[in-house]
Amino acid sequence: MWSATKDGRQQQRGSVFEKKRLTRNDDLVSSFSMIRDQLIETRQRLIAQLPVTGEILRGSLFERTVRHTRGCTICAGGGGHPLWVLSVGYAGGRTRQFSLRREQVDEVRGWLGNYHQLREALEAICELNHALLRPDDAAPRRARQTGD
Tell me, what's the pLDDT at 2? Predict the structure, then answer.
């Protein structure tokens, strides 16, 4: 249903652009612009919290045990030698592994943590941007029915 606004323009009633009274002091504010402003404000807060640093690393850290087949008394006794490895996967299924010294492990854990924090923040920002792209009154689409 259409109605005329104060300035003579046509406007669909019940649309996202219809003004609603949200405050007592007769200020008219669009509910859509308030939601949009809240989304943008939340996005800006997330951007401000991004762990922007050069100390960032993608991959998986794990410990494995290397066992020599002969000539090592530790391995012969069933012990083996612990070794920390950073494994990074690339496109095409390629994997690269980096052997780490014990003193590097804590630093690498921190860099991996920075990567995960940044990735989570970027995902949250993308979700907010998706919401900004969606029309306010958009309803989920129904599945198409096939004519059997």
Answer: 44
